[in-house]
Amino acid sequence: MERVVPADLPAMRAILERQPHLAMFPLSNLDRHGLDGDHPRAPSFWRDGDNVLCVTREGIVLPVIAPDAAPAAAKMIVDRDLTGVIGEAKGARALLAAAGLTGAVALDGDETQFLLDLHDLAVPETSGQLVRLDDAPRPMMEDWRVAYNVETLGESEAVARSRVAAELDSYIANDSHRVLMIAEQPVCTTGFNATLPDIVQVGGVYTPPHLRGRGYARRAVSLHLTEARARGVKKATLFASSNEAMRAYRSIGFHPCIVTGEDGTQLEVPVNARGADELFDVFAKLPGIETQKMLDALSRRPDVRVTVWQRSRPLLH
Fold it and tell me: What pLDDT, on a 0 to 100 scale, did the predictor assign at position 286?
């Protein structure tokens, strides 16, 4: 792989912008902090054909690569102090293996990516209005962010607490996060953790445990996306792993993104079919089924019947 210099940026951007939902962090960090900048999230890039490797100054690796490009990409990160790898599962896992880092991470998991054309956004007709993050009580927002980082990112409370002030200051400076208020009381937060002119990536969605199950997250996310749509944003993406989160995001129009070809054609789970939500929930509750594996099976062979689960049968001896 060759190091990307300023003269290479137009060609590299053209590659990443073919499927921007797969390159939100690299592109957004580039726009916000510049190539090889001094900010902790400023990116450096390497490229080989259509394969692009991004590494931030703080050590986050953001691969946009095919699995067979992993050995070459791994050579670019040896002897570096790394703090994480975030990317499409197959390429990221191949890179971890090629770099000898499999099993060396504290938090290791796959999440399903969802997409939404904002013309299809559905806003729940429930109560609650958004305010900017700096209009909500600061101590409460700090406590919520610490709880989010502990629950979602696996950080220790001490580490999360040491970073929370800087994180909130950054969100306020970028006007990236919102708080849902009901009767002047905060009930949920939401935000955009990466933004491009035509697409935003939702992140930082948090509802305290005692307030969950009331539809606050879907209301908060949909209202924030309504703001983005008014600015001309056309699409949104996010990641979810729990059945509850997937159900909430599907209810406002998001659909799982399984695979996208070079021409932008997407293969999707038919979530708009009558009864699709109920069917999805039934499958998700089957003993032994793993949602991500089910989606992977559908993406590999969309034109034939695929068995994604079968009842285990005891063998008699």
Answer: 64
Please compute the mean of the pLDDT values over residues 175-198 and round it to a whole number. 97
Q: How far apart are CA 30 and CA 13, in angstroms?
A: 10
Looking at domain 115-300, which of 3.10.20.70, 3.40.50.150, 3.50.50.60, 3.40.630.30 is its CATH number?
3.40.630.30
- In angstroms, rounded to a whole number, what is the distance separating the alpha carbons of residues 57 and 2? 18
Phi, psi of 176 (to 5 degrees): -100, -15
**C-beta separation of 29 from 43 below 8 A:** yes
pLDDT at 163: 94
pLDDT tens readout for residues 41-96: 999 999 999 999 999 999 999 999 999 999 999 999 988 888 889 998 899 999 99
pLDDT at position 269 is: 47
